[in-house]
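Example record for the data management plan.
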Amino acid sequence: MLDDSVHVCAADGPLLRDDRDALDLIGEAWGHGATWVAVPVERLHEDFFSLRTGVAGEIAQKFVNYRLGLAVVGDISRFTETGSALSAWVRESNRGNHLWFVRDLDELAARRA
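Corresponding structural encoding:
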């Protein structure tokens, strides 16, 4: 079970496309007193999963700068199957403390416990 320190975004909200969208979400999370933000895969623009665009790095860096954790929630296999760079980045991110890729909110709760 997640506590109030995790701001869970609805799956049907606006897409996160760039660092400005990330800042909006960070402000929203701060308004709720959150230390982590759980973003469903459906809320991320496809450019996020194409590392060459730089979108994922920009968004992740904003969360790090504002000392908020970011959890990407859902199945990303359709993106990781096509490229080893993304798969490697996901593995590396999941070893850290700022950006995690999790299957569902239960996995996020377990990692935070």
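Summary line stored alongside the record: The mean pLDDT is 94.
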